[in-house]
Design brief:
about 350 residues, alpha/beta, Rossmann fold, seven-stranded mixed beta sheet, 15 strands, ADH-like_N
């Protein structure tokens, strides 16, 4: 199997401009890289936020997208464990346009690529890596809570005897966080969502699902009951959810804990009202913010074993992809797909297929 020297890509020609379809080529393949034909790519809020806020983009024309699935079409000389034709999924590299995903082909370090199991489609696989890495960083990196990950010895017992609260359970990150919590052995996984998503989140492993329109800190404290609460993970990371996270830890009288949030691009910092609130109670609460970029050198100790193990979790039914909403039209669907995500979807991942004609 080979790949064309020139192919199509969705390119942002200048700051805040809409995508245009253009031809481009890849740079030379490094020894540790694979070339991937991108069969499906998912939309994440970071994609349109980068464009709208001119964030993380250092050079134009730019290529967005960092969440995809496809098949291997070329293998570097030092790569083992991958062969031409393998189905794979991966988190692209923001700002490295040869590793962006709103195009028909890309190249990636093989160590950051996971094999797609036979029980899921490319469209499902496309929406896994970025959101999962955000939750993995929040749970297992020292900048988050610092638990032992489930692929290491003792990791499946890391949450034993404890509860965890996950705010925004129906979001892409929230769904994967619920499943990581179960893989980590938490005995009481509590989340919130709209009532339409209650059954989905219970299926993914949540023990208690509260109505996000009604539940306050007292509701969460009641759901925690006598199980010690370890920490709150805020998958939404806006002012209201950060404040709620602090209030939950205070209502449950949880000492020396944190609300762990995800970086939302804009605003870039934690909410100062929530930070101040965390210091007004007998039980002080801190807020930590993480950025789950798996290609970052300081996170490779998590992203590489995640890539090696995640396919097996999926094959065994221990980790279920988000439901998908596929936008037809190949690369020409990119603006419609970005708009759908920006307008807001519930419990779904928006996907389009760059190699589709």
């Amino acid at each position: 199997m080979s790949f064309p020297q020139s192919f199509k890509a969705a390119i942002v020609p200048e700051p805040k401009a809409q995508n245009v379809i253009s031809d481009r080529t890849l740079g030379p393949l490094k020894d540790d890289e694979v070339v991937i034909e991108i069969l499906a790519t998912a939309i994440n809020p970071v994609d349109w936020k980068m464009r709208d806020y001119n964030a993380f983009i250092t050079e134009y024309p730019a290529i967005l997208g960092s969440d995809a699935a496809g098949r291997v079409v070329a293998v570097g000389s030092a790569v083992s464990g991958f062969a031409i034709g393998d189905r794979v999924f991966f988190q692209g590299i923001i700002g490295t346009y040869d590793s962006s995903t709103f195009q028909q082909y890309c190249k990636m370090p093989a160590a950051l690529v996971a094999k797609t199991p036979d029980n899921i489609s490319d469209e499902q696989a496309a929406g896994i890596s970025l959101a999962t890495m955000a939750a993995v960083t929040a749970f297992y990196d020292k900048e988050g809570y610092g638990l032992i990950p489930p692929w290491e010895k003792g990791g499946t017992e890391a949450g034993r005897g404890h509860a965890i609260v996950i705010l925004g359970g129906a979001s892409s990150v929230g769904q994967y966080a619920i499943q990581l919590a179960r893989l980590s052995g938490f005995e009481n996984v509590i989340t919130n969502a709209s009532s339409a998503n209650f059954d989905l989140l219970r299926k993914l492993g949540a023990h208690v699902v509260l109505d996000r329109h009604q539940a306050d800190a007292g509701s969460f404290a009641e759901a925690v009951q006598d199980t010690p609460l370890m920490f709150v993970f805020d998958a939404i990371s806006v002012k209201a959810t950060q404040i709620l996270g602090v209030q939950i830890l205070q209502a449950t009288r949880t000492a020396n804990s944190h609300v762990v949030t995800v970086h939302t691009v804009h605003p870039e910092t934690t909410d100062q009202e929530a930070v101040a609130l965390g210091q007004t109670h007998e039980f002080k609460v801190g807020i930590k913010q993480v950025l789950g970029v798996g290609s970052a050198p300081h996170l490779r100790y998590l992203s590489e074993p995640l890539a090696r193990n995640l396919g097996e979790y999926i094959a065994k039914g221990q980790f279920i992809p988000n439901r998908t909403r596929v936008v037809p039209g190949g690369l020409t669907a990119v603006e419609q797909a970005l708009s759908l995500n920006k307008e807001g979807v519930s419990g779904e991942k928006v996907v389009f297929c760059p190699s589709q004609e």
